[in-house]
Every structure is written in C-alpha cells, then in structure tokens.
Design brief:
Blueprint lengths: L2 H22 L6 H31 L5 H8 L1 H26 L11 H7 L2 H21 L8 H33 L16 H4 L5
Helix pairs in contact: 1-2, 1-3, 1-6, 2-3, 2-4, 4-6, 5-7, 6-7
Length: about 210
C-alpha cells in the first residue's frame, strides 16, 4: 500500500460514515434517537474536518513529494465541499441537536415533522456526501485508478460525477419538502355563515 493511500483511507472512512449517518437522520421517528445520532454526526463531522485540514496544512508546509504532499494534492477537490460543511453544516447540526434535546424529559416522544424536516435539509446531508465522494475519488486515484489521466475517460467520468451530485441534491430537496409540508399546520375550515335570525313573530307563542 502506498504511503499517501494510508493517509487518505482514514479520512475517507470518517467522511463516508458521516454521510451515512446524515442520510439516516430524517428516518428517525423518536427525538431521543435523533439527538443521539446528531451527536454522532457532530463528532464525525469535526473529525473529518480536522483530518482534512491537517493533511492540507501539512502538505502546504512541506515541499517535495512526501506522502503528505501527495495526499494533500489528492484532497484538493474535497476542500470546497469541506469548507461548506464547516460554514453551514456544523451550525445546522448543532441547532438540530439542541432542538432534539428539548425532548429529553420525554425520551419516547415522537420526533416532530419540523425536526425531521430540519434533519433532511440539503445543507446537512449534501455537503457531507459530496465531500465523501471527493475523498473516495482521491482514494481511487491513489490506488492507481486515475480516471482523469485518459481524455477519453475523463469526460464521461466528470459527467457521471456531476450527475451523481445533482441526483443527491434533488433527493435531499424532495425529502426536505415532503417533511416540511407535513410540518405545516392544517388549514382551518372556513367559518360557516351565521344562521339567519328567526322571526320574533314565528318564535313567539301562537295567539288565537
């Protein structure tokens, strides 16, 4: 095994685990389980960010063809989605965990649809899974399968990657919209028109 592949494998494992955990959050129907999984996701996300930033910083500080340099070069594609994770996803996961923590007094409380809709927001799952895909592509290249080296293969590979990211984004958006619609309060029925007042003559006793 190449040395830079050994550096990339733990990074890929952490990001893949974070993507899997994030994908399963909206399916949790108990607030206690949602709070526990968001705790896992927070830990995995922070670990992935720390590992990625460490490799990139060490790669910038060292000049040459060391394993860290090659690993940092392979992670260049993952830097952009990882930045989105750091800016957007971490904050949303923290707020989601705080919202689920409001139900700790009743651990068996069903998770509200609004909480599950927040868990399905595209800015939680999409950046994590795109980062995982970018790191996996770096691992594949480090293993010797460089799809971008051949022009005849690079075009279709990039097209498949872009379509895959779009499909993931559409899936997250549709699931978020479906849960958000369930969280909306039911529309109130229109008020019935007031009944016409009865005539005092008809309501009174009959006089002969």
């Amino acid at each position: 095994m190449d040395d830079h592949l050994a550096v990339l494998l733990p990074v890929a494992a952490v990001w893949l685990a974070a993507g899997v955990v994030a994908d399963g959050l909206p399916r949790l129907d108990r607030a206690r389980a949602l709070r526990r999984r968001t705790g896992w996701l927070s830990g995995l996300t922070l670990a992935g960010l720390v590992l990625t930033a460490t490799v990139l910083i060490l790669g910038l500080q060292s000049a040459g063809t060391t394993p860290i340099d090659r690993a940092a070069g392979a992670l260049t594609l993952a830097a952009a989605p990882a930045l989105v994770v750091a800016v957007c996803t971490v904050r949303r996961v923290r707020r989601l965990r705080a919202g689920a923590g409001a139900f700790t007094a009743a651990p068996d409380t069903p998770a509200p649809h609004g909480l599950r809709a927040a868990a399905a927001h595209p800015l939680i799952g999409l950046p994590l899974q795109v980062t995982a895909l970018a790191v996996v592509s770096a691992v594949v290249s480090a293993a010797g399968v460089d799809l971008l080296a051949t022009p005849a293969v690079a075009g279709p590979a990039i097209t498949v990657g872009v379509l895959g990211v779009l499909a993931i984004g559409v899936r997250h958006a549709l699931r978020h919209n479906r849960l958000a619609e369930r969280a909306q309060p039911l529309a109130t029925m229109p008020a019935q028109p007031p009944a016409a007042p009865r005539s005092a003559r008809a309501a009174g006793p009959l006089h002969v």
